[in-house]
Specification:
The complex is a heterodimer of chains A (107) and B (121). In chain A, the strands form two sheets. In chain A, strands 2-10-9-4-5-6 form a six-stranded mixed beta sheet, with no helix packed on it. Chain A contains no helices and ten strands. In chain A, strand 5 and strand 6 form a beta hairpin. Chain A has 107 residues and is mostly beta strands. Chain B is an all-beta fold and 121 residues long. In chain B, the strands form two sheets. In chain B, strands 2, 4, 5, 6, 9, 10 and 11 form a seven-stranded mixed beta sheet that branches. In chain B, strands 1-3-8-7 form a four-stranded antiparallel beta sheet, with no helix packed on it. In chain B, a hairpin with a 5-residue loop joins strand 4 and strand 5. The chains are: A mainly beta (107), B mainly beta (121).
Chain lengths: 107, 121
């Protein structure tokens, strides 16, 4: 099965900061990579699909890049609503594995 | 707007069974693949199963293969997850999610709020 790793596992940041979260696949997955935001007690939310495509309604401060095995989610000018856990997920092959998550909290 | 509402969660003993439902609205349910994803307490998201819009393909995580069955009733706009031989490590919040489609599959664009399944004696 495809293994997904993320770094860091957590980070502390302030409103207005730019943060970057890395995701690595154990094998090449082309651009079959999504990013989701998840808050406790809420439904997860799709942010980015196919590595770099912004899902409709998602603010443009979210951006994704990468291909092959290495991917990055960047949140520019962090807003209060952005404090959450972020997961990458590959759709290259079943099972559709998620990364372990990166928790972004208030510094 | 797209709405997904899970139901059927609860407390069940190890070895028991439970059937989860997911009522869908706001989109043409019969045209989209659907997923189940779970989150155990204090853990991350784990993909569980996928079913194609016409039930022609079903995929499962190794951890549930042979115990869980995903199905759907397109006439009722409802997705199901039949869970048998439940184990302690199946305790989790279970989410249903819509596949973004068209192919390739595997992009989960809308999610429900989840239903909690607790396996405990």
């Amino acid at each position: 099965d495809m293994q997904m790793t993320q770094s860091p596992s957590s980070l502390s940041a302030s409103v207005g900061d730019t943060v970057a979260i890395a995701c690595r696949a154990s094998q090449s997955i082309s651009t079959s990579l999504q990013w989701y935001q998840h808050k406790p007690g809420k439904a997860p939310k799709l942010l980015i699909y196919a590595a770099s495509n912004l899902q409709g309604g998602v603010p443009s401060r979210f951006s994704g890049s990468g291909s092959g095995t290495d991917f990055t989610l960047i949140i520019s000018s962090l807003q209060p609503d952005d404090f959450a856990t972020y997961y990458c997920q590959q759709s290259y092959s079943t099972p559709f594995t998620f990364g372990p998550g990166t928790k972004v909290d208030v510094q | 707007q797209v709405q997904l509402v899970e139901s059927g969660g609860g407390v069940v003993q190890p070895g028991g069974s439970l059937r989860l439902s997911c009522a869908a609205s706001g989109f043409t349910f019969s045209s989209f693949g659907m997923h189940w994803v779970r989150q155990a307490p204090g853990k991350g998201l784990e993909w569980v199963a996928f079913i194609r819009y016409d039930e022609s393909f079903k995929y499962y995580a190794d951890s549930v293969k042979g115990r869980f069955t995903i199905s759907r009733d397109n006439s009722k706009n409802t997705l199901y997850l039949q869970m048998n031989s439940l184990r302690d490590d199946d305790t989790a919040v279970y989410y249903c999610a819509k596949d973004r489609a068209p192919p390739p599959i595997g992009v989960l664009d809308y999610w429900g709020q989840g239903t909690l399944v607790t396996v405990s004696s």
